[in-house]
Every structure is written in structure tokens, then in C-alpha cells.
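This week, study the protein below.
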Amino acid sequence: MTPVIETYCHIRNNHIFRDGKLIFELPGADLKVFLKSAYKFLNPGYARFYKMDEISKLGFLAAEVLSPAFNRELPQEETAVVLSNTHSTWVTDMHHQETINNDKNFFPSPAIFVYTLPNIMTGEISIRHNFRGENAFFIFEKFDPEFISNYTNHLIMSSKASSCLGGYVDQTPRGYDVFVYYLRSGKNEEGKPEHNAGELRRLYEYGNG
């Protein structure tokens, strides 16, 4: 039985969409202002958010948008988090490099350095939602629906997980691209999209307008 995409989220160009419907926008704002405003709109009451780097905040917000659909009845170890991107933590890496470039103004910050690993994002999401299943982050040249669908479907079909938060969260100095979805095992009684490469590609490209 192919797992089902229960719900999905896009965050692009200062707009947040859930299942293709606009739920928040702040055109023209810089990323810091947009992230802070989106957090206040979603109101998760999670002060740790303010310590995260920008790409972790993007992933966190996408997960928060989808969180009403999370199956809270599942054992904690049955929800996995499998995310990916193309540029790893490039933007945060540059911020960290700036703190060590000048010998006379040497101020490396552990608070920045800890976020120079992309899997910290999956960790932050898992901590927030108490997920204890498989936790993985992959780097591809571009969004790879074939790999992500095969990998996460294997987790479900082999009973290593009953649900999973998956997708793509990328950031460069020029912008960001977020497509995150929640899938589950079980019967598809509501006509939800099946979790396969074709559906993932369609939903991802749909979010690109």
C-alpha cells in the first residue's frame, strides 16, 4: 500500500501556502522580518525559534504549518524526518566565516557555528514535535523526488516508520525554496495524493507557480 501525502507546504517569495492555499504573506519584507512576522502569525509559543539560523527557521515554520495534521497517537519513534536541499548551510557558513576572517576582529560564535550542519534543522523540528524516528538530511544538485519518495516509502513499507515529514528546504544569498510535506501509512479514503516521485514533482513544481 503506497503511503499518502496528507498535507504539504510551500514557502517562497514571502508567501506561505498550505495545500496550495495562501495562509500568510508579507511582500517586500526582508527575510528576517518575514520570518519573525510568520512566527508571530503561527504563534507556536516556542522561544527556541529565535536562536535558530534562517534556514532552520524556514524548515521549522513549514513543519509548524503542517503540525495540525501530525498523528499524535503514533508512538514517538514512528515519525521520521527526511529533508534535503542543494546548498547545505551556505548562508550560515558565510556568516560564520565573517567572524573569523579578520585577525583583529576575531569573534567566532558557537551560536552560529552549531548551525553550519544542515541536519541541525531536522533536529530542531524533531525536538519541537517530539519525533524520535529516523532523522536524515540529504544534499542533491536539485530537488530529487525519486530518491526522497523511494527512501521514505521504504521506511514506511519496512515498518521503520508510520509517518514522515519530508521535503526540500534550500537557501542561498539570493533567496530560498521550501517544499515540505507530511505523509502517513494507511488507507487513502479522502483522495489524497499518493506518495510517489510523480506526485512529489507535480506538487513541488505547482508551488513554483
